[in-house]
Design goal:
The protein is an all-alpha fold. Helices cover 84% and strands 0% of the residues. It is built from seven helices and no strands. Helix 2 packs across helix 6, helix 5 crosses helix 7 and helix 6 runs antiparallel to helix 7. The radius of gyration is 15 Å and the shape is globular.
Amino acid sequence: MLKSTNVIKEHWPFILGLGAIALIRPVMKMTGIMDILGQQFGSILMTILISLAWLVIVLVKKTPNPVAVLVCAGLSYALFAIIVSGILSPILDGKLQGPLTNPLAIVSVFSTNAIWGLLVGGLAKALGRKW
């Protein structure tokens, strides 16, 4: 536990940067690029590409405890996405939409993205042992 906490404290700018990378997905949705790809296909494609980016980045940097780092990256992305939605939905749609309108949605966003980080982090840990 202490090791994970130290890794997070030491690498918080890196964690926030990884979380920010994932903002490409909501930006693509807001700009209409996702509609060109198709909502379902585009969302899956972007999730895969972001996951691969996270995986490659933590492996190349030989990140200690990639599981903790990527769980935190997923949580930081969740926070960023909620904030961006809260700021931009009233501007773009004229009313507040998204997770801020439903407390259960906030829990869901954080849970889903923590699990996403856990899965990619677990894969990074397994692959890191082989490198």
